[in-house]
Design brief:
Elements lengths: L6 H9 L3 E8 L8 E8 L12 E9 L3 E8 L5 E8 H6 L3 H13 L8 E6 L3 E6 L5 E2 H8 L4 H20 L2 E2 L8 E3 L5 E3 L6 E2 L28 H4 L6 H17 L9 H9 L11 H10 L16 H4 L62 H6 L3 H6 L15 E10 L4 E9 L3 E6 L4 E7 L7 E7 L2 E6 L7 E4 L2 H14 L1
Antiparallel strand pairs: 1-2, 3-4, 4-5, 5-7, 6-7, 8-10, 9-12, 10-11, 13-14, 13-19, 14-15, 15-16, 17-18, 18-19
Helix pairs in contact: 5-7, 7-9
The structure holds adenosine-5'-triphosphate (ATP).
Adenosine-5'-triphosphate binds next to β3, β4 and β5.
């Protein structure tokens, strides 16, 4: 096995190996800070000697800040996994080594039907690979988006499964710290699995082995997603299990109403609403739903059901959960999944040349991506994390020829360019210059390049409605382009406004 670029690549390689020296927290006598003792642990999910060529790659499930998750079928066994692929150089550059290691180590020790399972890992010179069990049903976020909002029965079912998994997570002494509909994945049968354990924090009496620094590091480190962050975190209080219960309250509210309870145009404004507990319930919420959410969103984290001395009993006994058979959740009939609109509507399936191991990666690695959604992100990604898409898509060496030395991609997405008689699919690429590029992915020709300008006669944006806007520019050939659809474009607009502000 080769390590990439010395230092960090080698360290990552060692830490992904099947034996790792780690520190296990043990309770300190007299209730003082936990004492760390160093131990060697053997991972349950083995590090295999596989290569990516041992797998037939399918559709892209989603894209994270520094990873891409792809459907991967092992050629010899036929077993299917969700392969999380992380670029070593990128992880090192973005200082995310500990995040990746933490997720690997923690997932390895968890065992609950409501938590995504890590099956094995492997690596090559360029990438780390985590084979996860597949959640073919996508994110809960997408179900909420597709259905508009969920019925109370559907929300009750999902909330109960999250409560069940959270009870386990908190029981082993972990705080997830990023509970939100995007991190609640659904199996093909429609059952919840909690994902994304890169932000977890062990509690003092945690049974879980973590990274050397995780327990010592200040528990009030700011992590999570703005709309789901509890007020005490904004006030720099240490993390507690109550943080996840607040996020559960926000998630339940979102399931029932279609949007999160604390919404606003910027993170700062969202935080103001959270601190002021500016919470309004839609009139059609039942008293039971309203009461549970109200209690979960208590500003005192110790009063939230699930965080009180009686543990999860009061939460599970809440009238909202009437009728839930807590011992038989996984056998209960799950809500019907709303399916994705035909993906081919958005993309015409030409992109079969995505090279997951970057330029210079493993020879002969040309994964087959039959549904043509390579490089695309799920709707939630598009909606919630402006800077995330590009990081992973910038791995794709295809775009390098359009960039100047040192220039990197901030964002990338497919769009329809509407012309008089036809419409065409192109890639819109925003770089950090800032520059906006329009590339025909079929012919790999650049259709336009706009350098940002403060002069409105060079560049101006006209918003028709929330999903349509025009970028009018003299550099953009002789006609104006109407950029059509995807929530993503709203973000481009935001970026435009930010840059021009
Ligand atoms: N086991 C899985 N099965 C199916 N889809 C998955 C699975 N794990 C992740 N995904 C999808 O892939 C997307 C990217 O996941 P990933 O873990 O790389 O990043 P993330 O956790 O969403 O983001 P970040 O790391 O930036 O917090 C997820 O949002 C999800 O939609």
């Amino acid at each position: 096995m080769m390590a990439v670029g010395g230092g960090c690549g080698e360290e990552m390689e060692k830490d992904f190996d099947s034996k790792l020296r780690l520190q296990q927290p043990s309770p300190a006598p007299g209730g003082g800070p936990a004492v760390q003792r160093t131990n060697s642990i053997v991972f349950r999910a083995p590090q295999e000697q596989f290569t990516i060529n041992d797998f037939e790659l399918g559709k892209v499930y989603g894209v994270g800040s520094f990873s891409k998750v792809v459907r991967a079928k092992k050629k010899d066994t036929g077993n299917v996994y969700a392969m999380k692929i992380m670029d070593k150089k990128f992880i090192a550059k973005e200082n995310k080594v500990s995040y990746v290691k933490l997720e690997r180590i923690v997932l390895d020790q968890l065992d609950h039907p409501g938590i995504i399972k890590l099956c094995f890992t492997f690596q090559d010179a360029y990438s780390l690979y985590m084979a996860l069990e597949c959640c073919e049903g996508g994110e809960l976020f997408d179900q909420i988006t597709r259905k508009g909002r969920l019925t109370e029965d559907e929300a009750r079912f999902y909330a109960a499964e999250v409560v069940d998994a959270l009870e386990y997570i908190h029981g082993v002494g972990l705080i997830h710290r990023d509970i939100k509909p995007e991190n609640l994945l659904l199996t093909a049968g429609g059952h919840i699995k909690i994902a994304d354990f890169g932000s977890v924090k062990p509690t003092r009496d945690s049974q879980i082995t973590v990274l050397p620094n995780s327990a010592n590091e200040k528990a009030c480190t700011f992590v999570g997603t703005a709309a789901y962050i509890p007020p005490e975190v904004l006030n720099s209080c240490p993390a507690t299990c109550g943080n996840d219960l607040w996020a559960l309250g926000c998630t339940l509210y979102q399931m029932l109403s279609g949007s999160s309870p604390f919404k606003d145009a910027s993170e700062w404004l969202i935080f103001q609403r959270i601190i002021a507990r500016d919470l309004k319930f839609p009139e059609d919420f039942t008293p039971e739903a309203r009461d549970l959410i109200d209690r979960l969103l208590d500003t005192d984290p110790t009063k939230r059901p699930g965080a009180r001395p009686d543990g999860y009993a009061s939460l599970k006994k809440h009238p909202f959960f009437k009728g839930i058979d807590w011992n038989n959740l996984r056998n209960a009939r799950a809500p019907r999944l709303a399916l994705e609109k035909d993906a081919s509507d958005d993309y015409d399936g030409q992109d079969t040349s995505w090279n997951l191991t970057r330029a210079g990666g493993a020879p002969g690695c040309q994964p087959n991506i039959p549904d043509g959604c390579a490089g695309s992100a799920s709707s939630s990604e598009q909606q919630s994390h402006i800077s995330r898409l590009a990081s992973i898509d910038s791995f794709d060496s295809r775009w390098q020829e359009y960039l100047e030395p040192g220039e990197t991609i901030v964002m990338i997405s497919k769009l329809k360019k509407i012309q008089t008689l036809t419409n065409k699919k192109v890639e819109l690429i925003l770089t950090d210059k800032p520059k906006l590029l329009c590339v025909d992915p079929a012919k790999m020709t650049a259709k336009a390049s706009i350098i940002w300008s403060d002069n409105p006669s060079d560049l101006n944006v006209q918003v028709a409605n929330p999903s349509h806007f025009k970028i009018c520019t003299v550099c953009f050939s002789s006609y104006h382009l109407l950029y059509f659809l995807h929530i993503f474009f709203l973000h481009i607009l935001i970026v435009i406004l930010l840059f021009s502000a």
